[in-house]
Amino acid sequence: MSLTLEQSKQRNKQLIEEVLKAYPEKTAKRRAKHLNTFEEGKTDCNVKSNIKSIPGVMTIRGCAYAGSKGVVWGPIKDMIHISHGPVGCGQYSWGSRRNYYIGTTGIDTFVTMQFTSDFQEKDIVFGGDKKLDKIIDEIQGLFPLNKGITIQSECPIGLIGDDIEAVSKKKSKELNNHTIVPVRCEGFRGVSQSLGHHIANDAVRDWVFDKTDPNKHAFESTPYDVAIIGDYNIGGDAWSSRILLEEMGLRVIAQWSGDGSIAELENTPKAKLNVLHCYRSMNYISRHMEEKYGVPWVEYNFFGPSKIEASLREIAGHFDDRIKENAERVIAKYKALTDAVIAKYRPRLEGKTVMLFVGGLRPRHVIGAYEDLGMNVVGTGYEFGHNDDYQRTTHYVKDGTLIYDDVTGFEFEKFVEKVQPDLVGSGIKEKYVFQKMGVPFRQMHSWDYSGPYHGYDGFGIFARDMDMAINSPVWNLTKAPWK
Amino acid sequence: MPQNAESILDHETLFRQPEYLELFENKKKNFEYPVPADQVQQIVEWTKTAEYKDKNFARDSLTINPAKACQPLGAVFAANGFAKTLSFVHGSQGCVAYYRSHFSRHFKEPTSCVSSSMTEDAAVFGGLNNMVDGLANTYNLYKPEMIAVSTTCMAEVIGDDLNAFIKTAKEKGSLPGEFDVPFAHTPAFVGSHITGYDNALLGIIKHFWDGKADTAPKLERTPNDSINFIGGFDGFVVGNIPEVRRIFKLMDVEHTFLCDPSDNWNTPTDGTFRMYDGGTTKQQVEAALNAKASIVFQEFSAQKTAKFIAEHGQEVVALNHPMGVSGTDKFLMEIARITGKPIPAELERERGRLVDAIADSQAHLHGKKYALYGDPDFLLGMTQFLLELGAEPTHVLSTNGDTEWAAKIQALFDASPFGKGCKVYPKRDLWHMRSLLFTEPVDFLIGNTYGKYLERDTGVPLIRLVFPIFDRHHYHRTPIWGYEGGMRVLVMLLDEFFETLDAKTNIPSKTDYSFDIIR
């Protein structure tokens, strides 16, 4: 039984009131600002965001270290990223984000390795700068082909007063200007991963751009040079995006940061246009490049054919007619593929409802891909979005969509229980909760070990995955027949 | 066009299509300014040398690919083994997201745990307000019967006092004064996840036995005939605890599991999410004081807890993750000795079947060389099992095992002719192991999921018997303890042997004369 728009708005209202009742008064007041229903015509989603999570409520968020090491820096493949502090942070984030790359791991690339200073009590008491100095020497000795080192600060670094910037400068000098980047992404900074993205972006600005001779690499520019910004190549997303830009006649000079290299970062200010996928995590460096180097940037969305088509045209709009014509050719070329994918999967997915809770760009960016398959997103929210994300979301969501910012475990469970979507898309911590409830689920951070989901090649995989989640026969077995 | 609607290509096939191979080639050539291929190859070869190994073993500051995690992970594991208990980690919130993800990736189950979400202001002023608000929210929202508090390194570095904070929270009305909030300081920069398990378990037992942080009288011990069982941090807990329970039942022994997460991480998919399921109850913890003895199945995972229990008048039998025939023999004989109950015929038959299976298959494992890494107790049990199979545990490496542990491994080597030439490596990591596998090759590697990188680089086949196992499903559901567990481990060793042998003999007209139908 499907509800009318008014009924579902009413239901959302009751639902929000109901979950808030479970909290102590002070907490209910704070959480109330993060929950709402989108009203058509509004310029934002009428929720507060980017505010401290409330203690003890089971936030889904991570920390600044996760935003810097886990998201922005970690995928840069030919650098070594030291998780500086105790062993855990590096251990839990080791290889789990599926940032695909090509290289000989341990020799010229290092993404799926865990380098840590493994702090002991004495390092806390006496400081870790000397150890860090020694670690850099040991790295140079054992991994001579590394093209740079980043120091990803864990909580204690900022608390014990270590001077990682001084160590970085000293070692860089000793090592013939080797790129060494200190990153102050201690986990207690900010309210979520988000500040870690910002800090990591600033570290690129201060310790890569500002310290690199622009003529370091012989580089011949062309009028068609673009850089992919904010694609972490999860399951190969950046590759299935890059291929389309290249087919349009553009030259992709850098990938930030999935399958990226330090040389690509260094050359990016020479791009004619930065194309930005994950706005949340890399708008900072895009704005900086615009201000300092005059490189314009444009946001795009490569999930699902409708958005891909619009994005290809938008990107082509920044170039000459040849590129514009090429964009049309690319769109036409893939039409048969996307039509076939939709013909195959849409009948199996038509009218199915989805609730999302993800990070970065996905709470809005994937909506179009679902709609291409005839599905409706009835609830969405951001783990660490800001108000500008919720503003952008208004262009994607329908009237009456339930919005939940920094949702708590309790709220999410209740919302899904009552709204009864056909699919939930969120993370590993949420996956099994909803599957136990008998609700089909896909991880929308890691693509549930599938992907790519970006680009035309990714859309087929996306459609197939959503189909196999929702239409798996297992969901008919959750109730014993004698009950 | 690489993709195909009829038959969707996944990443492992899609990116091998010519369009993508060309894309990779051009990206590398034009934009990555790569190290020349011959130079890369030169370094690849160099890392295989004894010279590189010496350099690698000479490092004293950098850790690369460790086989250990931090204390609070173990604390969350321990808390998850108590009935209707919610784990509350005081400190930065990102840590909790990591523990929950880590366990969910291994067990394929939800892992509930909350954080006090401390941020910069708490770093300056301390996290008292976070504790006060956090406990109130947790109590009201998730309705636990116990909240087990541990700490991240942030809270430890700034020196937050859990005992005082919890008291204050109660005074401020966050939760009722009598509500049980056991706690443990679990600094990530001391020990590893097994230390955290120990500290958290001790925190809970101490809370109930020693007067609930001075709010209740200490319990008096009235000895009875039951036995406590402490399993330690164990990635196979879901399979192992029911197996131990079965053994106790067969022996008709009254028993209490002090920490049993085997239900919490093994709930059904039947339409209901159970945030709490099973686990040791508070009443059981209290009654456990009266037990005749406690069996600590993993000594290095519960050292402080064992000491505490012994000081309360119980006999403590500390084992080292016994496995296989003689390991399980020892476990059963200890139960029999403590309780005076005989080992039943049924278990003796199980033993005989395991010996039977070993006799059937031992020729395939005899003299095979193994490298193994993991937690200290597992390695003691596994080393002993390999030795009794006639295999050689050539490299035994632990990141969180110390010299005391190494001496125990050495004693096992010394007691067996198959231990000759085997070596133990305390406080080493998987990059050390990589050098060992190149310079002193072995036939098989026993480790966790991260061992697959070693398998890729060195070609040594990996057998997954160590936490975490992310890339194989459901291993944790069946035991590796007891004779039944021994049987399962034996089959895993044999499977890997046969698969490897088949893979080495399957080229038509070249090697397939040895592609035998009977092995």
Task: Kindly describe this structure.
The complex is a heterodimer of chains A (483) and B (519). In chain A, 46% of the residues lie in helices and 12% in strands. In chain A, strand 6, helix 10 and strand 7 form a beta-alpha-beta unit. Chain A has a six-stranded mixed beta sheet with strand order 1-12-11-10-13-14, sandwiched between helices. A four-stranded parallel beta sheet of chain A has the order 3-2-4-5, sandwiched between helices. In chain A, strands 7-6-8-9 form a four-stranded parallel beta sheet, sandwiched between helices. Chain A has helices at 5-21, 25-32, 64-73, 88-92, 121-126, 129-142, 155-160, 164-174, 193-209, 237-247, 262-267, 279-293, 305-316, 321-349, 362-365, 367-372, 387-393, 409-419, 428-436, 455-470, and strands at residues 35-37, 80-84, 115-116, 149-153, 180-183, 225-231, 251-257, 273-276, 297-299, 353-356, 376-380, 402-404, 423-426, 441-443. Chain B has 519 residues and is an alpha/beta fold. Chain B has helices at 11-14, 18-32, 37-46, 50-58, 71-79, 93-107, 120-125, 128-142, 153-158, 162-171, 193-209, 211-214, 237-250, 282-287, 303-311, 324-339, 345-365, 376-388, 403-414, 430-439, 451-458, 482-504; strands at residues 63-64, 85-90, 114-115, 146-151, 227-230, 255-257, 293-296, 315-318, 369-373, 392-398, 423-426, 444-447, 462-464. Chain B contains 22 helices and 13 strands. Classes of the chains: A alpha/beta (483), B alpha/beta (519). Chains A and B meet through helix 3, helix 4, strand 3, helix 5 and helix 6 of A and helix 2, helix 3, helix 4, strand 1 and helix 6 of B.
